[in-house]
Amino acid sequence: MSAPAAADLARLVDAVADRVPALISDHVDTIVRDIEIYRHDDVVPRADLRRSVQHNISYMVAAIRDPSTAGDESAPRETGRRRAEQGVPLPEVLRAFRTGFIALWELLADGARREGDPAVLDTLVAAAGVIWQLSDEYSIAVTEAYRAATADLLVAREQRRSALAEALFTGEPGPEAGPWEVAQLLGLPAEGGFAVVVAETPGMAEEGLPHVERRLAERGVASAWRLSAPLQTGVVSLRHHELDDVVAVLGHGIRGRAGVSPVQPSLRDAPRALRLARIAMTGLPAGRAEVAVFDPGPVAALVALDPDESRRVVDAVFGAVFDLPAEDRTTLLDTARAWFDHGGSADRTAAALFCHANTVRYRLRRLQELTGRSFTEPRDVAELAAALQALRLGRSPGRR
């Protein structure tokens, strides 16, 4: 703008200055009337809204009167930050901002018409580009401040959720926050059962179960997660879903081994569930992208709680079997597992292994000779079951 045009625009701004307070009041009323979220005083208090409108319009007026002050964007940036913290959607924030510029433009246009001087009106028209550029710059400042504040809020939220989840897993939620209170803060139902999930991370700060919280949420499953260097750990609500449904979701896109605990009735059991989930995961072969669910049976839980003792159990029961060549050893142990899995029926075991029932009986007799334990004596059967469960958890004999 030329110096004379700038002077004419400044005189026009001065001429309408006494009408700016009324413009501010009218604009506050317009925002509350036309934008629903601003009608709720518990979201943006009316006094806060009025203060923001007053600051922003005052800055606009000053920048139009003296373009050298247009670089001061503290008012729109403060508005953007505040509205992000209050949870007002960005489109609604920008809508309120644009209507303020429109109202100010209309005030200036009315002032030019009242002057009755065609030169003043021509000056305003010539200055329109500058004014709307100022509008764009202020809108950008609002948007940048809003997005920066939103990013900070998201980081703080995720850090808080991660810390709360860690408190659950360690069993140390703090003196004033028990598992029920932590569940509320995490947005998890306090009832209905839950499971703990652990997954290997493929790299630093990389998820082993990518976007798992969002994918579960899309199916109505609430969960909370924390990410550390070696593991991604989560607690999953099973209030309205079966564990098999959750496992199916976990299996899509998995990038390494993952373990799932049995269903637990209370969040107080989270530390124990975490141990069982990790045991289930480490029972999988290294490098396999698969989900393993810990056997919920009491024998499995008993074996899992003492890794060293479970190795001694395997050694005591199957020591002689592990002295066999690998192929023979695998055949006999697979037969024993199948026999337990099929209720001690030689016929059903044979069908599962695609062999004759007499072959199954022969292998069981060999195992009886090697282990010194009968498949008909209750105490011996219990020891065989415990040793097989320990093997399923990856507990090989310590001396081999």
Automatic annotation (TrEMBL):
Coiled-coil stretches: none
Q: Per its UniProt record, what Pfam families does this chain match?
A: GGDEF_2 (PF17853), HTH_30 (PF13556), RsbRD_N (PF14361)
Domain RsbT co-antagonist protein RsbRD N-terminal residue range list: 21-161
Superkingdom per UniProt: Bacteria
Q: Where is the PucR C-terminal helix-turn-helix domain?
A: 332-390
Report the residue ranges that make up the CdaR GGDEF-like domain in this protein: 178-281
Q: Which InterPro entries match?
A: CdaR-like_regulators (IPR051448), CdaR_GGDEF (IPR041522), PucR_C-HTH_dom (IPR025736), PucR_C-HTH_sf (IPR042070), RsbRD_N_dom (IPR025751)
Give the record's family classification: Belongs to the CdaR family.
Q: What is this protein called?
A: PucR-like helix-turn-helix protein
